[in-house]
Specification:
- This protein has 4 domains: 99 residues, Uridine Diphospho-n-acetylenolpyruvylglucosamine Reductase, domain 2 (2-Layer Sandwich), CATH 3.30.43.10; 118 residues, Uridine Diphospho-n-acetylenolpyruvylglucosamine Reductase, domain 3 (2-Layer Sandwich), CATH 3.30.465.10; 90 residues, Alpha-Beta Plaits (2-Layer Sandwich), CATH 3.30.70; 88 residues, Alpha-Beta Plaits, CATH 3.30.70.
- The protein has 15 helices and 17 strands.
- D-malate (MLT) binds next to α12 and β15.
């Protein structure tokens, strides 16, 4: 069947038959059709994407996921896989006539191997639970993000999430060893080996990382764990601009300290956080920007850090240092997303970009100038994991009618600076019209070939990531 036929109207009897079949598979209690119950699955976290679905299906194990997909495949009904629904690009939001396949009941932690340093767990396990399970063995989960209480392992793999520890341990793709996933026709694919060296053929777990629910439903993952850093120290320093923050980060590294996290914030962002939470401004006098850097070293971290800071008066306007975990300092950073959402009069246009470090300062300057010139009513708040090139561009008070033009303006500026239109949140619905700014025609054609061979009827997340073929 051509994917386009998915959007053609179906007989209501087809949907009714499908729902009966799905109830047989997962049990009536796990087929949600009541609009009030499904609302939490069809609206995204930002409020920007409001979808619809004929039902939310909550399978409890891999065989149920397989049977659900087989039934939807046979009926030609689109399926939107969904984990914690914390995604920020609308990738988990279904369109009318689709089924949402929620993985939240796949919540078994099968094992933590403290010697092999791995965790095997269901796709619906949250990042916070995986981290807690690892901590019980003196280890940590390598991905950390402010949405960890709800974001699931399947979701972070499907989006290839980055987060605040990316600069230290790499992104989610770098943490996966094995994966179990169900293809569109219901067949189960398992690449499950704890080996870190295993070069037999294509990297299937790597391919599913960042596939955003378009190739398969991830049901189980085998992921690396990391040794927690000891004796960490956190510095929050006021700086004039991002180039000074980059220089400071570089000096910290050259001193032999290990950078565990490196974040940038603006004074406007700090003001929003202080207005929306009980956080207090870090210094008496404001700085244009603030960098938060967490460091570790085998010994004398504090002394080494203080030495770097005292040699960096040329870069720093003011600074405060606290031993890790330094929750108060981290709260100033981690409360950005919620504070920004709460203070915009319209759904925030959230763009998540990266640029080469060498042009980051120039990019930010020209972004600010362009926005002030062309969209004077829009309030930009920038923050992000700057040491890996990632800046989160949040555009507040943007009228929905200008959202497309605004996004286009920012993305063209990103492309002109040789950056990426998606550093960590994925493409989803929000960015698929701009995918050609990040990939060549041949590259997009190769991805489309992979999509059509894995999902020949185009039932998995149509319209997400890759633009639909007409
Ligand atoms: P969902 O939102 O449910 O789904 C996201 C995408 O993955 C969709 O395309 C969906 O179809 C697909 N998907 C989900 N589960 C599966 C599965 N089992 N199989 C196949 N496809 C699946 N992201 C970052 O990268 N870094 C951050 O620092 C970060 N911080 C955040 C902070 C806040 C406060 C919030 C709200 C979000 C943040 N995010 C961040 C975004 C979000 O948390 C991540 O994208 C996360 O990976 C989504 O996980 P989820 O389980 O909620 O997935
Ligand atoms: C973050 O780094 O906090 C996230 O990616 C969320 C966001 O961009 O708002
Ligand atoms: Zn982020």
């Amino acid at each position: 069947m051509n994917p386009r036929t998915l959007t053609e109207p179906r007989e209501p009897a087809t949907d009714a038959r499908l729902l009966d079949a799905l109830a047989e598979i997962v049990g009536q209690a796990h087929v949600l059709t009541d609009p009030e119950l499904i609302e939490g699955y069809t609206r995204d976290w930002t409020g920007r994407w409001i979808g619809d679905a004929i039902a939310v299906i909550r399978p409890g194990n891999t065989s149920e996921v397989s049977a659900v997909l087989r039934a939807c495949f046979d009926a030609g009904v689109p399926v939107t896989p969904q984990g914690g629904n914390t995604g920020l690009v609308g990738g988990g939001i279904a369109s009318a006539g689709s089924v949402v396949l929620s993985t939240r009941r796949l919540e078994t932690i099968e094992s933590v191997d403290p010697i092999g340093r791995t965790i095997a767990a269901g796709a619906g396990v949250t990042v916070a639970r995986a981290d807690l399970a690892a901590s019980a063995h003196g280890l940590r989960f390598g991905i950390d993000l402010a949405s960890k209480e709800s974001a699931t392992l399947g979701g972070i793999v499907a989006t290839n999430a980055g987060g605040t520890r990316m600069v230290r341990y790499g992104n989610t793709r770098a943490q996966i060893l094995g994966i179990e996933a169900v293809l569109a026709d219901g067949s189960v694919l398992s690449r499950w080996t704890p080996l870190v060296k295993d070069n037999v053929g294509y990297d299937i777990p790597g391919l599913l990382a960042g596939s955003e629910g378009t190739l398969a439903v991830i049901t189980k993952v085998l992921m690396k764990l990391v040794t927690p850093a000891t004796d960490t120290q956190v510095v929050l320093a006021g700086v004039r601009d991002v180039d000074q923050a980059l220089h400071l980060c570089n000096r910290v590294r050259q001193s032999g300290l290990t950078v565990e996290a490196a974040e940038i914030m603006t004074d406007d962002g700090i003001s929003l956080v202080c207005a929306h939470t009980d956080a207090r401004r870090p210094f008496g006098a404001p700085s244009p920007m603030y960098t938060l850097i967490e460091v570790s070293s085998p010994r004398e971290t504090e002394e080494s850090l203080l030495e770097v800071l005292s040699d960096s008066a040329d870069l720093i306007e003011d600074a405060t240092v606290e031993p890790g975990p330094a929750r108060k300092l981290w709260t100033l950073r981690e409360s950005h997303t919620e504070s920004i959402s709460a203070s915009s009069t319209t759904p925030v246009v959230k763009l998540d970009i990266s640029v080469p470090l060498s042009v980051m300062g120039m990019f930010i300057e020209s972004l600010r100038e362009t926005l002030a010139d062309r969209f004077p009513l829009v309030r930009p708040i920038l923050f992000g994991h700057f040491a890996d090139g990632n800046i989160h561009v949040n555009l507040l008070d943007a009228e929905p009618r200008v959202a497309h033009e605004l996004t286009d303006t920012v993305f063209r500026l990103v492309a002109a600076h040789h950056g990426s239109i998606s550093a960590e949140h994925g493409i989803g619905r929000a960015k698929s019209p701009w995918i050609s700014l990040g990939r060549t025609e041949a590259d997009i054609a190769a991805m489309q070939l992979i999509k059509s061979s894995w999902d020949p009827r185009g039932i998995l997340n149509p319209g997400i990531l890759l633009p639909e073929k007409v």
